[in-house]
Amino acid sequence: MALAKLFGKKTTQLTDEVDLGSTAFFQDPYPTYELLRNNQPVAAVKPAGHLLTRHGDILSALASKDLRNAPSRFSVLNKKNADRYEAARLANNILPFIDPPGNTIRRQCLIRSVRAQLDIWQPSLEGVAARQMELFLQGDSEDVIEKYASPLSLNLMCDFIGFENPARNHYKDLSDAFFYLFAPLSDAEKFEQVNNRLARFRSELHQLLELRRANPKADLISKLISAEHESEGLSEDEIIDSCMLVFADGVENVEAGVANVVAAFYQDRDAQEMFHSNEMSLEQLVSEGLRLQTPAQFVPRIACRDMEISGVEIAAETPVFLSLASGNRDTEVFEAAEKMLSGRSAQDLLTFGRGAHSCIGSRLASLQIGAAVKHVIGFGLTPKIPLSKIRFKSRLAHRWPTHYPMTKP
Ligand code: HEM
Questions:
Q1: Mean per-residue pLDDT of the chain
Q2: Which residue's CA is the closest to the ligand 1 atom numbered 16?
Q3: Whether residue 10 has pLDDT greater than 80
Q4: CATH number at residue 154
Q5: Mean pLDDT for the stretch of residues 229-258
Q6: I need a labelling partner for 276 at 20 to 30 A (CA). Which of 9, 30, 233, 305 fits?
Q7: Residue 259 beta carbon below 6 angstroms from any ligand 1 atom
């Protein structure tokens, strides 16, 4: 939808609701975010609900007890459907859909295990990233997502979780199914396919769990099993479903994150100069790239009661979407928000959320993306197309590029 049509010329009022599922919005949501921040920071959106675009409102919403994560009673993922659908059973076992205080102990357990596994896994990271780059450089494809970032994140996460099967591509299909939990599932046929793929994913992890019970190894699933009988451990179902969660997060958002950071970097000549003259660290480059091209564009919540946000009435059970991507570019908080800066503090960043549901894999993700980006830039790969020509998947709430062709040296 053209922006001129979206807003009345003089009134700066919306003349039409923003459609979060429209191709135009997926392609470039940032001009819309800016208009909304300036004119209608709590906006009614299609298909339903309200979108928050100001940093301050988003921070308050992330801390609010009146906004919950548990699926609404109208959702197919609601607890009442847990015995009917694989997707609902999964949703009710994993952190993104469980509110405090129910999530606290499970969250602590998963954080401890992920941290411990990170220490063991990290030394292998550089070697895996370098080998994958060699394969990419030898191959015919120019697509740095399909032939570098995607197989790299897949291999890294298979090692992290404990999958040993050398035929790893089908895990990618399974992790892709997982993210349909975070979008409205209105197509019955698609929903059935998603349930079937999730059931296969569960069954593979169940087999792995049995293997590791008998023979533990240095992987995440063995760590979770060893904590199972402690008072703060996870049940068998929760172990399996948490592994699905960690795996899918580590594959999908990370492969997108690599391309997003590289694309943001090649948009900004000053950043390129700073990075090449060591005035900007790799860590800073990743952090700024993810701020400007945030893979998790917005996170959903449900209003627990009738409420008001910045003067806008919101009825109980309404979805409220918190645009982390918009907050990350809010000029009220970020100086020169459209630029990559080397000395920007991480304190206000929203890339990985905040509070009770903040990302527990932010360090793991930043390390993976950093290793990949270092190789892409270090080997002198240069983009064949500007950021404006990259196509993005039509996946609600995410900014995931489809292809990113680069010229090899
Ligand atoms: C660039 C990559 C990533 C991005 C942008 C990202 C972003 C996020 C965001 C924004 C949230 C908060 C959701 C909310 O508030 O509703 C979140 C939650 C989560 N992330 Fe990540 N994530 C990334 C990678 C990872 C990785 C590698 C892992 C693996 C451990 C991971 C595990 C999780 C988990 C388990 C949660 C749920 C926490 C909870 O609900 O308590 N993420 N992520």
A1: 92
A2: 299
A3: no
A4: 1.10.630.10
A5: 91
A6: 30
A7: no
Length of the chain: 409
Encode pLDDT of 90-106 as tens digits. 999 999 999 999 899 99
Atom of ligand 1 nearest to the CA of 95: 40
Q: Is the CB of 286 under 6 A from ligand 1?
A: no
Structural domains in the chain (count): 1
Ligand 1 in reach of 351 Cβ (< 6 A): yes
Q: What is the pLDDT of residue 3?
A: 46
Would you say the pTM of this structure is higher than 0.70? yes
Confidence of residue 12 (pLDDT cuts 50, 70, 90): very low
Residue 14: the pLDDT is 58
Which segments of 228-299 does DSSP mark as H helices, in order? 236-248, 254-267, 269-276, 282-292
Q: What is the distance between the alpha carbons of residues 225 and 229, in angstroms, rounded to a whole number?
A: 8
Domain that holds residue 143: 3-407
Token look-up 């401890």 returns: 112
Closest C-alpha to ligand 1, atom 38: 357
Residue 8, pLDDT > 50, answer no
Helices (H), ranges, 11-85: 23-27, 30-39, 55-63
| Ligand 1 pocket, residue 352 CB under 6 Å | yes
H helices of 301-380, in order, are: 324-327, 362-378
Closest residue CA from atom 18 of ligand 1? 359
The share of the chain scoring above pLDDT 90, in percent, equals 83
Alpha-carbon distance 407 to 122, whole Å? Answer: 29
Query: Using omega within 30 degrees of 0 as the cis cutoff, is the peptide bond preceding 101 cis?
Result: yes
Distance 86 CA to ligand 1 centre (A): 21
Q: Is the CB of 300 under 6 A from ligand 1?
A: no
Q: Which of 223, 291, 359 to mutate to test the pocket of ligand 1 (most atoms within 8 A of CB)?
A: 359
